[in-house]
């Protein structure tokens, strides 16, 4: 790949966890009910994400790996009402520019047509198509990324240990599994299964599966609807689950995991007076806002969002969290 292309790729793909994030989001956008993630050597040797989503027709495989090609935006107006997690068409191209990426896929329609139409695959290395072929698989898509950053030595040097990269990936999957309780997630790191959810659709069950706790007594539901059409729902863990870090404070806006400084602070203002100093709860909150209240088109990594009524939301969050924790037994 061109040097400029590798630099551009670096903006979206900083580390193995960024690859996993993009591939999981693609699987979710494809309507997957099951997503399996496999990691070796902290993701530098191998990242594989398989889904049972709608798949990609063979004639679109190459285009999917090209820059600025997305199948997700039909009209400019769609930017205002984004329903998908991806929309820039950069992720696969960026990953393929700095690794060896194999995209194997079989569309649902092809499966319906029967055995004689197998799945197709292409391998792109450093942005160049190097091989293609066919093989059997049920509908869905598998993306395998090998030798990440093999052609970006400067980036490789900055990678932390495989263990710390794997830790980030585990945290990321935890977030998505809490965000999408109706999807079955499975994460295996160095051939060990570290996370599994059943896709029951019930957030409390997903949290119980993620944290392996008798959560019925330990999770307190939050459910608030205001007159502006804003809905807040989720769970706060009982105070005994409080942690010395913010890892388990998770906020989702319209299903998208987000980092919004003001809202994060608003949550903290809600729980701080009720917990021991420096402690943070298990807190999983989903905000459902009318799509036009949210502008996700801010940063390629997309965990930042801009909100039209951030102040009001912040107040609502602080109040809701405080009210619920006050009622919880200490
Ligand atoms: P974006 O998600 O912004 O559209 P990507 O580079 O992540 O861009 O993906 C490019 C295109 O490849 C997508 O628009 C989609 O059509 C297709 N694609 C990628 N991953 C999958 C997947 N897991 N299942 C089905 N289609 C996929
Ligand atoms: Mg994408």
Automatic annotation (TrEMBL):
Residues 207-326 form the DNA mismatch repair protein S5 domain. Keywords: DNA damage, DNA repair. It comes from the Bacteria. One of its GO terms (cellular component) is mismatch repair complex. Transmembrane segments: none annotated. One of its GO terms (biological process) is mismatch repair. GO terms for molecular function: ATP binding; ATP hydrolysis activity; ATP-dependent DNA damage sensor activity; mismatched DNA binding. Belongs to the DNA mismatch repair MutL/HexB family. This protein is involved in the repair of mismatches in DNA. It is required for dam-dependent methyl-directed DNA mismatch repair. May act as a 'molecular matchmaker', a protein that promotes the formation of a stable complex between two or more DNA-binding proteins in an ATP-dependent manner without itself being part of a final effector complex. This is DNA mismatch repair protein MutL.
């Amino acid at each position: 790949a061109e040097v400029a292309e590798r630099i551009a790729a670096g903006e979206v793909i900083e580390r193995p966890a960024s690859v996993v994030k993009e591939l999981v989001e693609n699987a979710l956008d494809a309507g997957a009910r099951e997503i399996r993630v496999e990691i070796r050597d902290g993701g530098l040797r191998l990242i594989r994400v398989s889904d049972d989503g709608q798949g990609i027709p063979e004639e679109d495989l190459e285009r999917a790996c090209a820059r600025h090609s997305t199948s997700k935006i039909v009209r400019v107006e769609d930017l205002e009402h984004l329903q998908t997690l991806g929309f820039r068409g950069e992720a696969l191209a960026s990953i393929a520019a700095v690794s060896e990426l194999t995209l194997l896929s079989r569309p649902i329609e092809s499966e319906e047509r029967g055995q004689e139409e197998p799945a197709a695959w292409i391998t792109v290395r450093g942005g160049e198509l190097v091989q293609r072929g066919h093989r059997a698989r049920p509908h869905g898509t598998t993306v395998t990324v090998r030798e990440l950053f093999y052609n970006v030595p400067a980036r490789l040097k900055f990678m932390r240990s495989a263990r710390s990269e794997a830790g980030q990936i585990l945290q990321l999957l935890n977030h998505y599994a809490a965000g999408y309780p109706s999807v079955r997630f499975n994460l295996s790191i160095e051939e060990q299964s570290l996370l599994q959810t059943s896709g029951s659709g019930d957030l409390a069950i997903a949290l119980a599966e993620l944290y392996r706790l008798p959560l019925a007594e330990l999770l307190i539901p939050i459910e608030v609807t205001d007159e502006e059409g804003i809905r807040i729902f989720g769970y706060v863990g009982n105070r005994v689950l409080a942690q010395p870090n913010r890892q388990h404070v998770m906020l989702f806006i319209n299903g998208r995991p987000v980092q919004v400084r003001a809202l994060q602070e608003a949550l903290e203002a809600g729980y701080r007076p009720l917990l021991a100093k420096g402690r943070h709860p298990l807190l999983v909150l989903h905000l459902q806002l009318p799509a036009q209240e949210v502008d996700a088109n801010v940063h390629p990594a997309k965990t930042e969002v801009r909100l039209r009524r951030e102040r009001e939301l912040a107040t609502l969050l602080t109040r809701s969290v405080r009210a619920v924790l006050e009622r919880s037994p200490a």
